[in-house]
Known about the structure:
Elements: H1 4-17, H2 20-42, E1 59-60, E2 65-66, H3 68-80, E3 86-88, H4 91-121, H5 129-143, H6 146-151, H7 154-162, H8 165-184, H9 192-197, H10 199-202, H11 210-223, E4 228-230, H12 232-245, E5 250-251, E6 256-258, H13 266-274, H14 285-307, H15 316-338, H16 354-363, H17 366-383, H18 395-414, H19 418-441, H20 449-481, H21 486-492, H22 498-506, H23 508-527, H24 532-541, H25 569-589, H26 594-602, H27 610-619, H28 639-654, H29 662-678, H30 689-706, H31 714-723
Antiparallel strand pairs: 1-6, 2-5, 3-4
Helix pairs in contact: 2-14, 2-15, 3-12, 4-5, 4-8, 5-7, 7-11, 8-11, 14-17, 15-16, 15-17, 16-17, 16-18, 16-20, 17-18, 18-19, 19-20, 22-23, 23-24, 23-28, 23-30, 24-26, 24-28, 25-26, 25-27, 26-28, 28-29, 29-30
Amino acid sequence: MRRRAPIDQQKWWKQLRDHQYIRTILFFIMGILLYLLMLGSVIPDTLDVRLSQIADRDIRSPITVENKVETERRQNEAIDAIAPVYDQKREYAQNQVVKVNDIFELVLQVKSDYETAEAEAETESELSQEEKLNEQLALVEQELSDGTSNDLSEETLLTLLSASPTQLQIAREATTNAVYEIMSERVTIRDLAEAKSDVSNQISFSTVSNRLLQAMVEIAEFAIIPNYIYDAEATERLRQEAAESVEPVIIREGQLLVEEGEIINHDLYEQLRLVGLLDDSFNIYPYIGLALLVVLIMSMLAYYVNESQTSVQRNNSHLLMFTLIFILTVSLIKVTSILEVFQVQGIGFVVPVSLGAMLITLLIHTRLAIFTSIIFAVIGSVIYSDPNSAGTFHFTYGFYMLFSSFAGAYFLSRSTRISRILLAGLFVSAINVIAVASLLFLKTVQSNWIELGMHVGFAFLSGFTAAVLTIGLLPFFEAGFGILSTTKLIELSNPNHPLLRKILVEAPGTYHHSVVVGNLSEAACETIGENGLLARVGSYYHDLGKTKRPHFFIENQMKMENPHDKISPQLSKTIIIAHPYDGADMLREYKMPKEIIDIAEQHHGTTLLKYFYHKANQDSDHPLPEEQFRYPGPKAQTKVAAIVGIADSVEAAVRTIQKPTPDKIESLVRKIIQSRLEDGQFDESDLTLKELDKIAVSICETLKGTFHQRIEYPEDVKGKGDKK
């Protein structure tokens, strides 16, 4: 029970360390740093230019935008080009003829009514002729509209009233004909005076008096009005159509705005302002676009990390390590992109982007390295893009970084020895050279041999630099995060390691047992996608505690008496139960990785020492509680530790089988797994029933290969019987 408190403290710290909030914070920090590193590559550089200044270089638009001022100017030009629309109102001629007829008809009606009134009075009027005409004039003016009475003089109306009906009829016909003839032609406001002056030519009769003729001319001139007038509705419609037909003036992304040596006039200056290249302009859209891109990248990365079935999925310390590698790689991309200011041909290809893929492959998993390589390619294409030229993404560098990273991840997935890292650097360099050569040869304009050599040289240097940086940084990540990398595991599996030599010399039986357990557990782990190498190396050290009292374990009792026969079951139990924790303590003294210590401490879980428990019950007067003969635990916390525990029990039990056959081996393996399952030993390791079945099949296959010389198949048994 003395070990429970430290275990509980470790669980508490592990829960705090692996809390979901910590993961969220790490992804948030990663996103913020990524945004800051990429910001300078998407925000166009502002120019210090003035009017009438001579441009010292070509200036292109970084964005596509509409030049609304120029568009509006062209629309106004199109509108001004549309002449006013006039329409000849032919119905005006008839209307004015009717108006002339109405005047003459009114005069005739007034004369007739007046004469009738005099006749009915039966008395001769004492009024003079002039007074009579004035009375008739008053009646006519009363009936005429204000406009008409004001436009026609009294003399004209008196002339009409003094004329005979025959003369009035002749005058009416002549006047209406003249008005109709003139109004049938186009009469504009400008031509109105000329049209009225033409009335005297149209009305020329010798049969009427000059006075009546002048009255006819005045009435005709009054009736003639413009019939060719401005059509506002039609004019507005045509001008609207002309404005809509003007295409918007678009400044395209990458469009050359100012040529080198060109004087910056007012129009060019306004275009530079419009696309955000002047100090006094601010465009928020690149900031928003970059933020959305970072959110998209982080979302995809977080989703893949949480579904990748790697150590990063649950271990926040590994996620922190991944974050550091990610930011380190992006920072290197940013730094090397700055080198392009030196304008050295191909210097951008020196970027050691495969460093990230190699470190992630070595420290975490190849799957995550390949996925992150795609992310690096996208980020690199943005960082290497010129914000003042066309394109948000630089395809050339994105293509190059993708293949460079893929090469590093693929080559190291086969082996992770230090010498393999150097070979990986050469392999990456070769892939880089091929990628750069293909990009250069695909261009329409071919580069000269000097430029080609520069590009290829920097590409080759990139792979070599990445390998050197990987070898240099790998120990820091392994030591700083306690990472049990493949390289470290291979080093720990060396038989010359002091602890392995100790097992081999002091407990040779245990050493052989551990080697067999390593074979069984490695194959079983690889079957369900776990780290087989970790299982093998953990198996080598899992029984290190037996070296304290090697002869109390049966595999080391060679032609000697069993010491347990001379001591009580309780003492035997104490000795046996101590070996996992003695081994864990020894491993801690040697600063061994935590994963190896956990396997040594957890491989027995809380299982029951059945042999000594039953033996103690036989010697006791009353039943003893099982808890006294159980390992104190903890139970296996990982799948690897649980598999090592299964393999340990199977290897020890299979030795007891007389003449082992495949059926006997399979029955024993499944019985042991079933017993541990029912005892709850897998409750904290997340092993599924499907995985347990795969583990059983794998262990059986491995054991069949181990005991193939001792297995007697029915055919062999029958053959031997016949011989006998």
